[in-house]
Amino acid sequence: MGASVKRSRQTKILATLGPASNTKNKIRELFEAGVDIFRLNFSHGEHKDHAALFKIIREIESKVNRPIGILADMQGPKLRIGTFKNGSVETKRGQMIRFDSDSAPGDETRVHMPHPEIFSALKKDGLFFIDDGKVRCRVREIGKDYFIAEIRAAGTLSDKKGFNVPETFLPIPALTDKDKKDIAFALDLGVDWIAQSFVQTADDVKEARKLIDGRAALMVKLEKPAAIENLEAIVELADGVMLARGDLGVEIPPEDVPSTQKHVVRYVRSVGKPVVVATQMLESMITSSRPTRAEASDVATAVYDGADAVMLSAETASGDHPLRSVDMMNRICQRTESDEIYQDMMGDMRPDAIGDDPSDAITTAAFYVAQDVEATCIVTYTMSGSTALRMARQRPDVQILCLTPDEKVARRLAVSYGVHAVCTPEIKGEFSGPVPHAVQIIKEEGLAEKGERFIMTAGVPFGVSGSTNILRIAEVE
Hints:
The protein has helices at 24-33, 47-64, 117-121, 177-189, 202-212, 225-229, 231-237, 245-251, 257-270, 293-305, 314-317, 322-337, 340-348, 358-372, 386-393, 407-412, 434-444, and strands spanning 12-17, 37-41, 69-73, 88-90, 96-100, 110-112, 127-130, 135-142, 146-153, 156-158, 163-164, 193-196, 217-222, 240-244, 275-278, 309-312, 377-381, 399-404, 419-423, 453-458, 470-475. By secondary structure, it is α/β, with parallel strands linked by helices.
């Protein structure tokens, strides 16, 4: 069954589930169209909704006999304004409006601000944005529990729209009480990844790590300028990174987003962790059956940058064309990866071995040997997944067949570049044993044919994590 869903691209697709994609048939279709890992968005829906989706994914997984990743994305402390008497108000440029801690619904003259920490964090004449920057305001007066702002770019203010303060570090915890409950629930379900929103410092990541306690991998979302400034310390503590360009693009100038994306992807790849580029990738396909040329270029750019995965949000969760969106993303990834310029770029950005780590030296060597002998795939035996991650870091142009006895490891690797993970019983004994075993799986998975070569790395003795010390060239018989 596995061979029928072998992907013909290395970049992975992460897709969000929601009202447009919440039935078994639809989720199965999305998987077959190219989704490698599904996102459950805890900003929306009840726990029972997420549990139902989780169950469906696991049922599909057992039918197709392929590990499918599941990521639970936390809402995080997104700042939001309160509600309005009539649901919304229209603003005019130059208008003065009061924001205060009174919980009564707002009107044309005042808005409820339910976050008391804002009052001390704002500065006179400082800018803030509402509803992803659609309404822009400048602070003109600050009091103990209120501030008065001038509307600089007018628009509609409606209930609970997001509130961003660019260039300001806000002293708010990265995990809300809701997040803590949601993380506990998601871990009990058995998700593979927890995504942490609005991270600003390494301490934020430490708090999440402590809560997760090794039961899932942790993906930090970069959507605050402070996170970009603290990138190295944050990435060191995380298992993976998502560049969430929606909120980030509100808080930093739009012209800074492309270069930030390139720096983040290159850095996260260099340290051997998966990196996802997310938000607004095929945004117009929420309502249109075709993307704009700019959106096609945006997805391709993320692939050219060397991202492990690209993400669909509302396109698959609540849009009119969920299946078409996945198909389009799949086609863009395939086309980009087949481009000679892409191959050159992956080569130019190839990171060196990390320090004097023997496992890394073996993996780096395996990549170059695979090129020299024109191997059709690279096989890694791994307990923890670290060997497969090291190989993914090299961005080989052939599939990485990852053989692991641990189902959790196989599922987590669903987000990693080029990794085709297969859950297989642990092999004991000498290194000769795994070769026929690998050949059998290669044939079953349709990764190579008789007479073709493959490269294999493993650790002897088997079953010891982090001890990759053998490299072998073998042939499919």
